[in-house]
């Protein structure tokens, strides 16, 4: 890939503490990435859901009945319903993330396709408070951009970074970003507390993220 401002700055940014310069780089990339994802969704959004489901998650090396947290896509996020339906049929236990407030990690509640959901801010649907709280073994997450090292550009709230850090302190987990191929960039600006993903799953198939 041709060098970009993000790839040129990547090495210098690796060990930086949070600073306006990193924030501005993320803000600029976030704006561009939203447009890229929107265009990719417009081209192949509906078909992508089935393609992603067809890949499954055997590549992650965690067998059923491991607990898999998915997400219910909103806007131009990829629809994971077909994949989650497949995983349930293979014996995996399913869960969905729940927001407990700004600055807090996500929690997870057990869920199966067809079970009732409540709607919260931004149109996000979550399992009801009566659902069992669980800690997933595999976390599937949305994103705006990703790179081959597993750095993920999210929406700016830090929910997944805090969540992955909490889960990794409890037990070994596998984190998988769900994305269109077009969302890949040379390098995502990051700081030392940004959590890397283990895999990216796109319509082309799974990509193992490498530290170097």
UniProtKB/TrEMBL annotation:
UniProt-annotated binding residues for ATP: 26-30, 152-160
EC number: 6.3.3.2
Presence of the UniProt keyword Lipid metabolism in the record: no
Protein origin, superkingdom: Bacteria
Record-level GO BP terms: folic acid-containing compound biosynthetic process; tetrahydrofolate interconversion
Gene3D superfamilies given in the database record: NagB/RpiA/CoA transferase-like
Catalytically driven reaction(s): (6S)-5-formyl-5,6,7,8-tetrahydrofolate + ATP = (6R)-5,10-methenyltetrahydrofolate + ADP + phosphate
Residue sites binding substrate per the record: 72, 77
Keywords: ATP-binding, Ligase, Magnesium, Metal-binding, Nucleotide-binding
Obligatory cofactor(s): Mg(2+)
Region (Disordered), start-end ranges: 1-22
GO molecular function terms noted in the UniProt entry: 5-formyltetrahydrofolate cyclo-ligase activity; ATP binding; metal ion binding
Family to which the UniProt record says this protein belongs: Belongs to the 5-formyltetrahydrofolate cyclo-ligase family.
Protein's UniProt name: 5-formyltetrahydrofolate cyclo-ligase
Species this chain originates from: Hyphomicrobium nitrativorans NL23
């Amino acid at each position: 890939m041709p060098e970009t401002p993000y790839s040129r700055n990547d090495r210098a940014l690796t060990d930086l503490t949070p600073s306006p310069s990193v924030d501005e780089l993320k803000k600029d990339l976030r704006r561009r990435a939203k447009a890229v994802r929107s265009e990719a969704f417009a081209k192949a959004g509906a078909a992508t859901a089935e393609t992603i489901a067809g890949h499954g998650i055997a590549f992650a090396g965690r067998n059923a009945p491991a607990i898999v947290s998915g997400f219910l896509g909103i806007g131009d996020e990829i629809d994971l319903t077909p994949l989650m339906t497949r995983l349930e049929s293979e014996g995996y236990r399913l869960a969905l993330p729940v927001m407990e407030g700004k600055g807090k990690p996500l929690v997870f509640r057990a869920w199966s396709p067809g079970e009732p959901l409540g709607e919260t801010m931004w149109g996000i649907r979550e399992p009801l408070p009566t659902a069992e709280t669980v800690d997933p073994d595999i976390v599937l997450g949305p994103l705006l951009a990703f790179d081959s090292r597993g750095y993920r550009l999210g929406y700016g709230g830090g929910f997944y970074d805090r969540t992955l850090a909490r889960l990794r302190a409890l037990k070994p987990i596998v984190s998988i970003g769900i994305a269109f191929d077009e969302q890949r960039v040379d390098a995502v600006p990051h700081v030392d507390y940004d959590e890397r993903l283990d895999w990216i799953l796109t319509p082309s198939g799974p990509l193992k993220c490498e530290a170097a």
